[in-house]
Amino acid sequence: MDSTPFDFRKSTAVGARIDADNEQLHLGRGYDHNWVLDSRGGRLMEAAEVYEPGSGGVLKVLTDQPGIRFYSGNFLDGTIKGKDGKPYQFRPACAWRRNTFRTH
């Protein structure tokens, strides 16, 4: 993960490397990947912190699971409508969810 577009150990804008020449990013059209956390799970910990410079808002993602999945809206194309009929465009936002790495 060192020196790849997937290295978010230091504060980095999500869009800074999302279009990098990387096979995994090309296949997923952006981020839709799991990260293994430095934890065995079972204990609540901070997995990510997101800062939005326009509003100054901060989101801290906490989990007690051993992993986290990050998705950047890569397959939205304006055909799905949201609140007030506004279309969800390509990469409009980001989502995180806890991950247990179950194989079944």
**How would you state the average pLDDT, rounded?**
90
Strand content: 25-35%
Question: How many DSSP helices?
Answer: 1
Question: What is the number of strand segments?
Answer: 5
Strand order of the largest sheet: 1-4-5
Could you estimate the helical fraction of the residues in percent?
under 10%
Which term fits the overall shape? globular
Order of helices and strands: HEEEEE
End-to-end separation? 26 Å
Give an overview in words.
With 104 residues, this protein is mainly β. The protein has one domain (14-99). Helix content is 6%, strand content 29%. It is built from one helix and five strands. It has one helix spanning 23-28, and strands at 32-36, 45-52, 57-63, 67-71, 95-99. The strands form two sheets. Strands 1-4-5 form a three-stranded antiparallel beta sheet, with no helix packed on it. A hairpin with a 4-residue loop joins strand 2 (45-52) and strand 3. The longest helix has 6 residues, at 23-28. The model has no long low-confidence stretch (mean pLDDT 90).
List the helices and strands and how they pair.
Elements: H1 23-28, E1 32-36, E2 45-52, E3 57-63, E4 67-71, E5 95-99
Antiparallel strand pairs: 1-4, 2-3, 4-5
Features:
single chain; 104 residues; mainly beta; 3-stranded antiparallel beta sheet; 5 strands; 6% helix
